[in-house]
Design a protein that fits this description.
This protein is α/β, with parallel strands linked by helices. It folds into 3 domains: about 290 residues, 2-enoyl-CoA Hydratase, Chain A, domain 1 (Alpha-Beta Complex); about 180 residues, Rossmann fold; about 210 residues, Orthogonal Bundle (N-(1-d-carboxylethyl)-l-norvaline Dehydrogenase, domain 2). The strands form 4 sheets. The chain has an 8-stranded mixed beta sheet with strand order 13-12-11-14-15-16-17-18, with helices on both faces. A 7-stranded mixed beta sheet has the order 1-2-3-4-5-7-10, with helices on both faces. The radius of gyration is 29 Å and the shape is globular.
């Protein structure tokens, strides 16, 4: 079938087939996936030069089929190279974009028809490559998308130019500005690909498309010409509508979706050359922004966390069956998540009412998945059947890991943990889903503290990505590794933290709540505080967040934190939170807290400002003064960021990545700001310390550490 090799590199090969068709195959050596790093791009240039030279020669290539030797096609550009590329001066970055586009133009301009045959995923630059070929054929399992806006950038290899000329323009806008992944069937419907065929027929179908193009050169040339020309449609209304919808979403602090729509609205009026220049200019502008730097760093942080967890897998014990003690909202959520991900779970409670509530929670979660089309009814029944509710410990001896999720009371937890320990196999791991209680102190009730650690899930369990795996003083490495592996099995991102009151996320959260309580005490309106922090980028302000957490839960946790860190976290005044607790207004769970909550027809809890609550909480104000939004943000963020610094210096986490990702995944820290430590860097360490000194009269919560001051003086940063 093959006559000879025309080019071979470390990522790409080009072979001439007997039919006179070239076969370009991506297979990046030493990597599990294909991606466009600089070396691969250089090889692609060389391979295309060889193909073009052959096409112009007598008896040369008549067509080109592009495939992948890996399960994926091309996952996009190599993000690990982005940080250095994006730091290039503007003129150099523009030149880099132009050089990359010249490669994809060379593919599009080959003197014969070209086809991408896609099995697996083609994302970002991978999809842009496909769009540069004349035809696209895909296996049913293939997936496509433009994820670039999620990194604060836009497609840079011609995607904004080619997509609206190949697809329905409205769909192209949706694909590029939305950033989500699409199935092969969706891609076919939206015009991104030409046909779907069985995986084993991909090459044959691609060859057929080439032959059809050769048999009807006029039609093929017209198809190619449209990709180089002005889009002959009036699309002003479509672009204006898309831009208006994106601008109306106040939660979106990322400028990339709007900027890319603006760029496309201009580029569709130009030919390929001018259109690509527009894309290059916008790409360069976005790539050099702080938001893009933060979002790229978050991607790299996530990859680092995954790699660190993977390294622990060699020590991990096998988890084939799990158990959850306590069938409340958290216990039911954990049981659901375990069963959903294929780990059968024993769910134990002391009361039938509790078990019923846990099963009901799991049932409701499964039905939501069915309603959204993500699960079949049959699959939902199978998942539910793998949750075995029980009032006793029958079968507990067979489980590999137990997650205790009973009431947040140390005496109750210690009694339950001691009771269950005696019934477990000698290799089973025991973990506590506590949010604040010391793991080392809980371990004092156990015979084998080495097999015990913390496993702190966040509510709601199915939605929150973070799991804190807390290392107690006696926790073994195998115990930690097994718990990390189980968290990964559940689809979560585990971060290993060392023991202290509140661990990582809650230790940082409660100084944030403390800053809020001080602001209200000093005269600020809690509604203005919420609005200011939401404008800053938080998904909800601190008052609203307290209502979601539960005022009773927060008051209890606050007492634990005050005991652990009395200098910073103990109050010497009656807070607004204390007033609500005394009135048994616990937030969403009781129907009222800082706000009143009304259930919508879809079951959603709608937040409503209640004048009687506002008047009642006026008692918490010891002063009467107005605050600017800037003052509010400064006081709130200083308290949170400085506690993050202390956690890092105290060794609660091993490095800045874990600290920042813990806040993003567990607390909803504004993603586009990169995390607390990245935020300090954006302000500048010297400037941040100076800002903290302006608020020194507010107490130790606002006092920079000596190490932070030393870093500022030496010009050091948290990230290299």
């Amino acid at each position: 079938m093959y006559l000879g090799e025309m080019y071979r590199g470390k990522a790409i090969s080009l072979t001439r087939m007997e039919s006179g068709i070239g076969h370009l195959c991506f297979d990046l050596q030493g990597a599990s996936v294909n991606k466009f790093n600089q070396a691969t791009l250089n090889e692609l240039r060389e391979a295309l030069e060889a193909a073009a030279a052959s096409g112009l020669a007598d008896n040369g290539l008549q067509g080109l089929v592009c495939t992948s030797a890996k399960r994926s096609f091309i996952v996009g550009a190599d993000i690990t190279e982005f940080s250095s590329v994006f730091k290039l001066p503007e003129d150099q970055l523009l030149r880099w974009c132009a050089d990359c586009n010249a490669i994809f133009n060379a593919l599009e301009d080959l003197p014969f028809p070209t086809v991408s045959a896609v099995a697996g995923i083609a994302l970002g630059g991978g999809l842009e490559f496909c769009l540069a070929t004349d035809y696209r054929v895909a296996a049913p399992s293939a997936a496509f998308g433009f994820p670039e806006v999620g990194l604060g950038i836009c497609p840079g290899f011609g995607g904004t130019v080619r997509a609206p000329r190949i697809m329905e323009p409205a769909k192209a806008i949706e694909w590029i500005s939305g950033g989500r992944q699409y199935s092969a069937s969706e891609a076919l419907s939206d015009g991104a690909i030409d046909t779907i065929t069985a995986p084993e027929l991909l090459l044959d179908t691609a060859l057929e498309l080439i032959q059809e193009a050769l048999d009807n050169k006029e039609q093929w040339q017209e198809r190619r010409s449209c990709k180089r020309s002005v889009v002959p449609l009036d699309l002003d209304a479509i672009f204006a509508g898309a831009k208006a919808r994106l601008e109306a979403d106040r939660r979106n602090h990322n400028p990339a979706p709007v900027r890319v729509v603006e760029a496309m609205s201009r580029s569709v009026r130009e030919d390929r050359s001018a259109a690509l220049q527009i894309e290059q200019q916008v790409f360069t502008e976005l790539a050099r922004s702080e938001i893009a730097a933060n979002l790229v760093q978050i991607f790299l942080n996530d990859q680092w966390l995954k790699q660190k967890s993977k390294q622990l897998q060699a020590l991990a014990g096998s988890v084939q069956q799990a158990a959850v003690l306590g069938a409340g909202i958290m216990g039911g959520g954990i049981a659901y998540q375990s069963a959903l991900k294929g780990v059968p779970v024993l769910m134990k409670d002391i009361a039938q009412q509790g078990l019923d509530a846990g099963i009901n929670e799991a049932t409701q979660l499964l039905q939501k998945q069915v309603a959204k089309g993500r699960l079949s009814e049959e699959k939902a029944r199978t998942v539910l059947a793998s949750i075995r509710p029980t009032l006793n410990y029958d079968g507990i001896e067979a489980v590999d890991i137990v997650v205790e999720a009973v009431v947040e009371n140390p005496k109750v937890k210690m009694a339950v943990l001691s009771e269950v320990e005696s019934k477990l196999s000698p290799t089973a791991v025991l973990a506590s889903n506590t949010s604040t209680i010391s793991i080392t102190s809980l371990a004092s009730s156990l015979q084998h503290p080495d097999r015990f650690c913390g496993m702190h899930f966040f509510n709601p369990v199915p939605l929150m990505a973070l799991v804190e795996v807390i290392r107690g003083a006696a926790s073994s490495e195998q115990t930690i590794a097994t718990t990390v592996a189980y968290a990964q099995r559940l689809g979560k991102t585990p971060i290993v933290v060392n023991d202290c009151p509140g661990f990582l996320v809650n230790r940082i959260l409660f100084p944030y709540f403390g800053a809020f309580s001080q602001l209200v005490r000093d005269g600020a309106d809690y509604r203005q505080i919420d609005a200011a922090m939401e404008a800053f980028g938080w998904p909800m302000g601190p008052a609203w967040l307290l209502d979601v957490v539960g005022i009773d839960t927060a008051v209890h946790a606050q007492a634990v934190m005050a005991e652990g860190f009395p200098d910073r976290m103990a109050y010497d005044f009656v807070s607004a939170m204390d007033l609500l607790f005394a009135e048994k207004q616990y937030g969403q769970k009781s129907g009222a807290g800082f706000y009143r909550y009304e259930a919508s027809s879809g079951g959603r809890q709608n937040k409503v400002v209640d004048a009687t609550i506002v008047a009642k909480l006026a008692v918490a104000r010891q002063h009467a003064r107005a605050f600017t939004d800037t003052e509010i943000v400064e006081r709130m963020m200083l308290a949170l960021c400085l506690e993050t610094v202390r956690c890092l210096e105290d060794g609660i986490v091993s490095n800045p990545i874990e600290a920042d990702m813990g806040l993003i995944l567990g607390l909803g820290f504004p993603t586009f700001r990169g995390g607390a430590l990245r935020y300090i860097e954006s302000v500048g360490l010297p400037q941040f310390c100076a800002l903290a000194d302006r608020y020194a009269t507010l107490g130790p919560l606002y006092r920079p550490t000596e190490r932070l001051r030393a870093m500022a003086a030496a010009g050091e940063t948290f990230y290299v």
